[in-house]
């Protein structure tokens, strides 16, 4: 069995149910299966080679979903290309993976200019590209084609997804058929998806949303494509189109709560609000649960172990002790804490988070040395530092490289971020270390305040000191109108740290002489 078989079986079971609901109309399971079959046949006709790569550079749409399913249906390898990325970054991924086919929105033409590969457009081709077919044209042409078949082992590559690159050079993660099967099974088990699900497609399909496409379709649910972008479009989809579940970054959750006139009644059918991609401080969790009710959930994973190594269901959030946790281990995986010498640590001790099992990648695309550094004796070294308590809940401290050592003391930025986040004026923050002649490293913070609210540096420093003591208190706070973010909403700590390290900022920074 392959990941695409979850969809084929659902289409056979619920042919008349709605699989995709778009602003332009709805697509039934039977109609979507016809489209996917025809498009998969077209992909094979363009390039018969199994396991050849297909890049998809498109915004969220029904065509994007159909193209992704078609790639899975013909034994090829999906390479997601973020349409919000830059042309050099897109070209770097294309040069690394050498896709023979590029499926794209017309708006992405400039991003892909000069790149090799046969073009297929999700929508109307751009001027000068009229010779490239659209998905609709290929579906019409190959409407009577048989469903492609293929035979590949469970460790064959299903996708090559590039890491976000917020803390280093991006690497192509080879996700296997086995890891996709584990992900699908765990998502269904964790969230209880059924045929009544209406998933709001808010996060990009090129990123987190891709891990929900097949789990929802496997159970006969429906994907609801937005009629626009941003928080208002998400609210409208929940209010007017029956949304029941959504995955989104914390920033979008906060934006929804800040919309003018918003209330819980705008989300009448919401059952699960799943956040990921960045942590949510406990004080924010309290605010979100007060607004939305007991529907909040989260997962922990990496591109190297997609999405769901651990899960926090809404019922787990009922116990406030768990608000700083990221859940307990899911099926088909082991998660443990490892010391630098390779020994597994007992509960309550801090070390590197490691994982093994079916969810893991097979390695980094054409980077055997990096693969050997990350996969050691079957364990994936996540680069995250954390602990597992006696009940099995995983608590993340920070990235290993993000830990600040100041005056010989270890400071975990997430602890300082959680304290800053309790201040009424703080919307979001990022804590990091910079080199310091006296302390080795000095703790600093970047802060984005809530609209209309104020706070001074001295006020915030005192606020943290009262809660955490002098060791973990930032020596300097940088204020931002808007914190720099990646295309998927993660705060770019590298960017705020680099700005803090710039000569002008260093010269003007207030240096506090307190004991660390």
Shape: globular
CATH topology of the largest domain: Rossmann fold
Level-2 CATH architecture of the largest domain: 3-Layer(aba) Sandwich
> For this structure, what is the CATH homologous superfamily of the largest domain?
ANL, N-terminal domain
Number of domains: 3
Nearest-integer average pLDDT: 92
* Spatial sequence of strands, sheet with the most strands: 2-1-10-9-11-12-13-14-15
Find the structural class using helix and strand composition. Answer: alpha/beta
Residue share in helix: 25-40%
Explain how this protein is built.
This protein is α/β, with parallel strands linked by helices. The chain has 3 domains: 4-176 and 194-295, Rossmann fold (3-Layer(aba) Sandwich), CATH 3.40.50.12780; 177-191 and 296-400, Luciferase, Domain 3 (Luciferase, domain 3), CATH 2.30.38.10; 403-508, ANL, C-terminal domain (GMP Synthetase, Chain A, domain 3, 2-Layer Sandwich), CATH 3.30.300.30. The chain contains 15 helices and 26 strands. The strands form 6 sheets. The chain has a 9-stranded mixed sheet, with helices on both faces. Strands 16, 17, 19, 20 and 21 form a 5-stranded antiparallel sheet that branches. The protein has a 4-stranded parallel sheet with strand order 4-3-5-6, with helices on one face.
Topology:
Layout lengths: L3 H10 L4 E5 L2 E4 H18 L6 E5 L4 H12 L3 E4 L6 H11 L3 E4 L13 E4 L13 H7 L15 E6 L9 E5 H15 L6 E4 L8 H9 L3 E4 L5 H11 L3 E4 L1 H8 L14 E4 L6 H11 L3 E7 L2 E8 L15 E2 L3 E6 L12 E7 L5 E2 L3 H7 E2 L2 E10 L5 E6 L4 E3 L2 E3 L1 H8 L5 E11 L3 E10 L7 H12 L7 E5 L12 H9 L1 H6 L8
Parallel strand pairs: 1-10, 3-4, 3-5, 5-6, 9-10, 9-11, 11-12, 12-13, 25-26
Antiparallel strand pairs: 1-2, 7-8, 8-18, 13-14, 14-15, 16-17, 17-20, 19-20, 20-21, 22-23, 24-25
Helix pairs in contact: 1-2, 1-7, 2-3, 2-5, 6-7, 8-9
């Amino acid at each position: 069995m392959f990941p695409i078989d979850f969809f084929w079986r659902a289409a056979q079971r619920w042919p008349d149910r709605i699989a995709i609901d778009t602003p332009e109309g709805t697509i039934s399971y039977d109609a979507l299966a016809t489209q996917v079959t025809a498009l998969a046949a077209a992909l094979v006709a363009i390039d018969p080679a199994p396991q050849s790569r297909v890049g998809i550079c498109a915004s969220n749409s029904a065509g994007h979903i159909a193209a992704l399913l078609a790639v899975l249906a013909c034994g090829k390898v999906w390479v997601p290309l973020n349409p919000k990325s830059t042309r050099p970054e897109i070209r770097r991924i294309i040069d690394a993976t050498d896709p023979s086919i590029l499926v794209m929105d017309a708006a992405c033409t400039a991003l892909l200019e000069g790149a090799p590969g046969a073009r297929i457009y999700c929508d109307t081709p751009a001027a000068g590209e009229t010779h490239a077919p659209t998905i609709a044209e290929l579906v019409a042409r190959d409407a009577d084609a048989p469903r492609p078949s293929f035979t590949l082992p469970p460790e064959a590559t299903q996708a090559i997804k590039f890491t976000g690159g917020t803390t280093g050079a991006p690497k192509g993660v080879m996700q296997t058929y086995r890891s996709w099967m584990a992900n699908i099974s765990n998502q269904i088990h964790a969230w209880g998806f059924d045929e009544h699900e209406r998933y709001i497609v808010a996060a990009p399909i090129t990123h987190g949303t891709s891990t929900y496409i097949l789990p929802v379709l496997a159970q006969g649910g429906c994907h609801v494509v937005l009629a626009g972008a941003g928080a208002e479009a998400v609210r409208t989809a929940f209010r007017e189109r029956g949304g029941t579940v959504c995955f989104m970054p914390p920033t979008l959750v906060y934006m929804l709560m800040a919309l003018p006139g918003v209330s819980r009644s705008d989300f009448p059918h919401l059952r699960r609000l799943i956040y990921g991609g960045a942590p949510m401080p406990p004080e924010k969790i309290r605010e979100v649960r007060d607004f939305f009710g007991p529907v909040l959930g989260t997962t922990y994973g990496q591109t190297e172990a997609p999405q769901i190594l651990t899960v926090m269901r809404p019922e787990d959030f009922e116990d406030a002790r768990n608000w700083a946790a990221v859940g307990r281990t899911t099926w088909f995986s082991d998660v443990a804490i490892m010391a630098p010498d390779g020994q597994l640590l007992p509960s309550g001790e801090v070390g590197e988070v490691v994982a093994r099992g079916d969810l893991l990648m097979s390695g980094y695309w054409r980077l055997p040395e990096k693969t050997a550094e990350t996969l050691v004796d079957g364990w994936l070294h996540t680069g995250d530092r954390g602990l597992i308590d006696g009940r099995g809940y995983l608590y993340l401290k920070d990235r290993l490289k993000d830990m600040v050592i100041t005056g010989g003391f270890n400071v975990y930025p997430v602890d300082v971020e959680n304290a800053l986040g309790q201040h009424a004026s703080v919307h979001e923050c990022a804590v990091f270390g910079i080199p310091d002649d006296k302390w080795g490293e000095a703790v600093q913070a970047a802060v984005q305040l809530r609209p209309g609210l104020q706070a001074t540096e001295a006020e915030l420093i005192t606020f943290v000191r009262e809660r955490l003591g002098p060791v973990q208190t930032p020596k300097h706070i940088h204020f931002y109108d808007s914190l720099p973010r990646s295309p998927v909403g993660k705060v770019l700590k590298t960017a705020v740290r680099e700005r803090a390290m710039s000569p002008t900022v260093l010269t003007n920074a207030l240096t506090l002489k307190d004991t660390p």
